[in-house]
Amino acid sequence: MSGSGDYSSEMFRNPLDDAAIEAFFTGQPADAELAPLAGFVKDLRSVANGPVPVPSMQLSKMLAEGFSTANGDLLVTAASNVTGPAPQAAGLPKWRKKKMIITELLAGLSVAAKAGFGITAAAAAVTAGGAAGVLPGPAQHGVAVTVEAVTPFSFPDKANAKADFGGRVSTDATDGGVDGGTVSAEAKLNAEAKLNAEAQLNAEAQLNAELNRPADPGQNGLDQANTTPAAGHAPTAVPSGQRATVGSQSTAGLTTAASTPAAAHVPTAVPAGPPASTPPAGAGTQSTAGLSTAVDTPAADRPPAAVPPARPGRR
Amino acid sequence: MGTVVNGRGRRVGEPVGAPFDDVLAAAQAGAGWAAERIWASLAPTVAGYLRSQGAAEPDDLTSEVFLSVFRSLGLFSGGEEQFRSWVFTIAHRRLVDARRAAVRRPQPAWGMEPADSRPGPSAEHDALQRMSAERVRDLCDRLVPDQRDVLLLRLVGGLTVQDVAAALGKTEGAVKALQRRALIALRKIVDREGVPL
After folding, report:
1. pLDDT average, residue stretch A203-219
2. How far apart (Å, rounded) are the C-alpha atoms in residues B4 and A40?
3. For position A303, what pLDDT does the model report?
4. Is A20 touching B (CB cutoff 8 A)?
């Protein structure tokens, strides 16, 4: 126990250095600056350094019986588990288990292995991004160049499309400037190529439209006639079409009809139609012409005596 | 029962007696006598450290510390000084746990008790010891907690800067700075107040 003069009232004169502090803590003769604290240290050790404390009941039992496993001491069980806690009965959530597995896996790797793992993951990510073509321009170009150099694969590279332009600009800049004539010629060639391409596309579109148009109506008519119950009486051919007048069409129709199985009932002549310049005939005129035509038919003996008046509301 | 100072000037408490390696091996094998030897060697210092830190029940806390020590004894490997540092690391952590528990369940009796509450050789001796304990407690309480931890682990536990850094989870530089500030703070208090003894 220290006396009343142990704690000095003098202030520090010099800053403490590490050697003086270490000497103070290891019990060696203290530096003059720390000497006033010697009494405090002595009291502290006196207070702290007491007799052996009284152990608790649990500890007393352990000290008396030791760590024997024969009597099933709980402490023995605890001591046997010092390598780690027992697994939890309820288990951990799946995400926590996965996280622990990854953490333990990484923790077991050396620093070099961790670095290699990280670099590999980063390279894989960059390569995948390069394959997808989603990297920024310079990065995409770098990845594409690297991959194409070491593998037979080719990656999308937007920079290649502009590389020639860049090289040309560089050349122009170093060989005396831009050649205006060359630029103009190239522009003209590009414009012509564009026009030619458009014309070719239009021609192809028109040709496709022609091919998709329905075939000769006459041929279609014959085809459809053969599908009807009167297929056996359908004409086998259609005379070549003539873009002609009404009269010639009628004559052609008679000729065609004469070649059909019903040739015996074909009228021998067709009355001439009104001239093209004549205005459309009225109902009476047409009716009269119809009667005249009917007289020339095999049913000439049963023509109506008169044409009934047209019913109202009907043309 | 006295303390001894090793070749480096460190207080190491009561010597184990037999070669430390033999005692440790026997304790790790579960021998009660070896555990008893370790307890007798280190328990007084550990209790003193806990008492200096103001633990409410330093003896009970010391028992808990050594229960933890013996339960995890199989994990330890090293010499006697490393073992001492390891024990004080456990003691400090149990102290922190006890403080946290006390914050959750405030206890009125929180302070430094004399090292030995049993009757001393004389009433005067008991009185002086009680005064010393109160004075030391007052000075320690006026230090920043980190400074107090470093100071007590070094002075009472006898740990090196490296050991203290490992026990507190700090760098050696931080420990050196803390112990320097602690000494300067103590010196200022003593100079200013002229603590009567």
Report:
1. 66
2. 20
3. 56
4. no
Measured between CA atoms, the residue of chain B closest to residue A2 is B197
Q: Does A58 touch chain B (CB under 8 A)?
A: yes
ipTM: 0.75
Residue A158: pLDDT band by 50, 70, 90 thresholds?
Answer: low
- Only one residue has tokens 């004469």, namely A258
Asked if A29 has any chain B CB less than 8 Å from its own CB, the reply is: no
Tokens of A12: 């520090």
A19 touches B at CB < 8 Å: no
Residue B165 burial class via C-beta count within 10 angstroms: exposed 0-12, middle 13-18, buried 19 and up: buried
The alpha-carbon gap from B121 to the nearest alpha carbon of chain A, in Å, equals 14
B114-121 long-range Cβ contacts below 8 angstroms, 24+ apart: B114/A47, B114/A50, B115/A46, B115/A47, B115/A48, B115/A49, B115/A50, B115/A51, B115/B47, B115/B48, B115/B51, B116/A50, B116/A51, B118/A51
How many CB pairs (< 8 A) connect A and B?
Answer: 182
d(CA B36, CA B14): 13
With tokens 């332009």, the residue in question is: A165
- Report CB contact under 8 Å: A7, B197: yes
